[in-house]
């Protein structure tokens, strides 16, 4: 914490409220001691805070820093002032190395009711700055230090001018003063190890709440503007990559993900109502949306488009940009659903369009369908309406072929009287119809299959009986077909009528 540890007043061994006369004399004395190679110490050296450089060069540098009015007042905000006996006691504790004791003294006085000396708050703030920078930056200590410093600058600047400059404001620019204080604090935090205030120390803007409004705005602009520019640059890069139609970069979000955290931090610090945030957030989300549209229109990749548009939808956006993202989300969602449908059911749809000419083909097709249906079922579940619908469609496809085949077999039997062929066709049709009932079917399809199965099983039984009769009477009749009962053919006709009507 160079601002405190190498503070000009510390180098000179003086409180920040030392008079011009005392400062001039001390500079002269220390230069003489330094030229003689002698080391001089003072109570306000406060060795417990860290090493002190009191070389001739350091003395001259200290004198230069507080030579002008503004420099002297500026550095006084980062060193101790002996305002009263409480400050003297606390500074004695510091000189003895009792840092916690000094803090407790100032805390106790500031916690009491009644009038409070502004130097108590300032001195405590300076000490907290030192403790905040003991290695990794301590955010809690830094926040409390800035709270103290802000109150003093906002509420007690006149008192400081009186105590440090004896009321002489010649050459003092108050705005320049607090700007310099903000610059130093921001620079300190940005250069510190660790990032408790986020990228570029953005969140420290919130810690300037006790400073004058103008100082808060200045701190905000100083930290926020570079981050906004970084997001704007990322958007330009993405626009260039979109123009180049680089699919791999698009899959990597056109490098826009690198600045997403900045958008989050800006929203947290500035709030949604801040016009600066709304503007940059809209530009960022709109570019992500443009990437999604690119993925859909140019690369025909609904899944990539969906991931990008969902990302855009999750980002803060406002007004027309928000509406545009919503509209594109709906459009891309439709494409994705269609793409998913094709991926899920595409193979089965193709099979449903394949012509079938033999029972063997029908059997093989049914097995293929069952394998595809099993895959779909594993993905969407047995109760999914789309799954039930296409499973029923498969049953209708096979059943339709069976109806046509049995009708053809009936026609063939009428002309050729070949009972064996009829038996084979009916038997295979019976087996395939039974397998259809193993599919997950809607109610109407299951009723139809059951109805036809019941009839075909009866026909199969009758035809099998007829074949048996023929075998038993083959030796006693030249026309076994005449021995098939008439009811067999009647039932056959009923079966065919039933299948056709289904």
Q: Quick summary of this structure?
A:
The protein has helices at about 1-5, 10, 20-35, 55-65, 70-75, 85-95, 100-110, 120-130, 140-155, 155-165, 175-190, 215-245, 245-250, 260-270, 275-295, 300-315, 320-350, 360-380, 385-415, 420-435, 445-475, 485-500. The protein is mainly α and about 500 residues long.
Textual characterization of the structure:
There is one protein chain. With 502 residues, the chain is mainly alpha-helical. It is 72% helix and 0% strand. The N and C termini lie far apart (91 Å).
Strand percentage: under 5%
**Biggest beta sheet attributes:** none
Strand runs, count = 0
Given the helix and strand composition, which structural class is it? mainly alpha
End-to-end gap:
91 Å
- Give, in order, the helices and strands: HHHHHHHHHHHHHHHHHHHHHH
Which runs of at least 5 residues are low in confidence (pLDDT < 50)? Answer: 480-491, 493-502
The number of helical elements comes to 22
What do the pLDDT scores average to?
A: 90
Radius of gyration: 45 Å
The general outline is rod-shaped
Specify the helix fraction band.
Answer: over 70%
């Amino acid at each position: 914490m160079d601002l405190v540890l190498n503070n000009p007043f510390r180098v000179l061994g003086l409180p920040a409220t030392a008079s011009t006369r005392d400062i001039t004399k001390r500079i002269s004395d220390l230069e003489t001691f330094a030229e003689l190679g002698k080391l001089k110490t003072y109570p306000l050296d406060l060795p417990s805070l860290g090493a002190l450089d009191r070389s001739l060069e350091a003395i001259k540098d200290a004198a230069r820093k507080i030579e002008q009015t503004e420099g002297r007042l500026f550095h006084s905000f980062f060193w101790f002032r002996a305002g009263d006996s409480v400050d003297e006691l606390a500074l004695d504790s510091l000189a003895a190395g009792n840092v916690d004791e000094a803090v407790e003294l100032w805390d106790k006085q500031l916690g009491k009711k009644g009038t409070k000396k502004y130097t108590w708050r300032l001195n405590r703030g300076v000490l907290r700055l030192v403790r905040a920078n003991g290695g990794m930056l301590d955010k809690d200590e830094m926040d409390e230090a800035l709270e103290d410093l802000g109150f003093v600058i906002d509420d007690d600047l006149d008192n400081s001018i009186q105590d440090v400059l004896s009321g002489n404001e010649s050459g003092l620019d108050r705005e320049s003063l607090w700007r310099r204080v903000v610059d130093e604090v921001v620079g300190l935090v940005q250069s510190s190890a660790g990032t408790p205030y986020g990228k570029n120390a953005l969140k420290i803007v919130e810690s300037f709440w006790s400073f004058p409004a103008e100082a808060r705005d200045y701190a905000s602009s100083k930290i926020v503007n570079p981050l906004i520019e970084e997001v704007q640059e990322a958007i330009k890069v993405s626009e260039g990559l979109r123009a180049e139609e680089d699919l791999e970069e698009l899959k990597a979000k056109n490098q826009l993900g690198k600045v997403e955290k900045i958008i989050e931090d800006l929203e947290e610090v500035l709030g949604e109502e801040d016009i600066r945030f709304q503007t940059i957030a809209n530009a960022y989300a709109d570019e992500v949306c443009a990437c999604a549209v690119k993925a859909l229109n140019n690369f025909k990749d609904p899944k990539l488009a969906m991931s990008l548009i969902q990302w855009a939808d999750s980002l803060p956006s406002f007004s027309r940009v928000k509406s545009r993202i919503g509209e594109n989300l709906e459009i891309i969602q439709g494409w994705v659903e269609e793409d998913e449908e094709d991926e899920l059911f595409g193979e089965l749809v193709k099979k449903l369009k394949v012509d079938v000419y033999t029972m063997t083909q029908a059997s093989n097709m049914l097995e293929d369908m069952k394998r595809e249906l099993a895959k779909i079922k594993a993905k969407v579940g047995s109760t999914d309406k789309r799954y039930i619908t296409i499973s029923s469609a498969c049953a209708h496809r096979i059943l339709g072929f069976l109806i046509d085949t049995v009708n053809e077999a009936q026609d063939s039997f009428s002309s050729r009287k070949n009972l064996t062929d009829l038996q084979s066709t009916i038997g295979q049709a019976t087996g395939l119809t039974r397998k259809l009932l193993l599919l997950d079917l809607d109610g109407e399809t299951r009723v139809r299959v059951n109805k036809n199965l019941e009839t075909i099983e009866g026909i199969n039984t009758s035809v099998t009986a007829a074949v048996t009769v023929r075998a038993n009477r083959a030796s006693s009749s030249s026309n076994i077909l005449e021995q098939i009962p008439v009811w067999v053919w009647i039932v056959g006709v009923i079966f065919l009528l039933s299948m056709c009507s289904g």
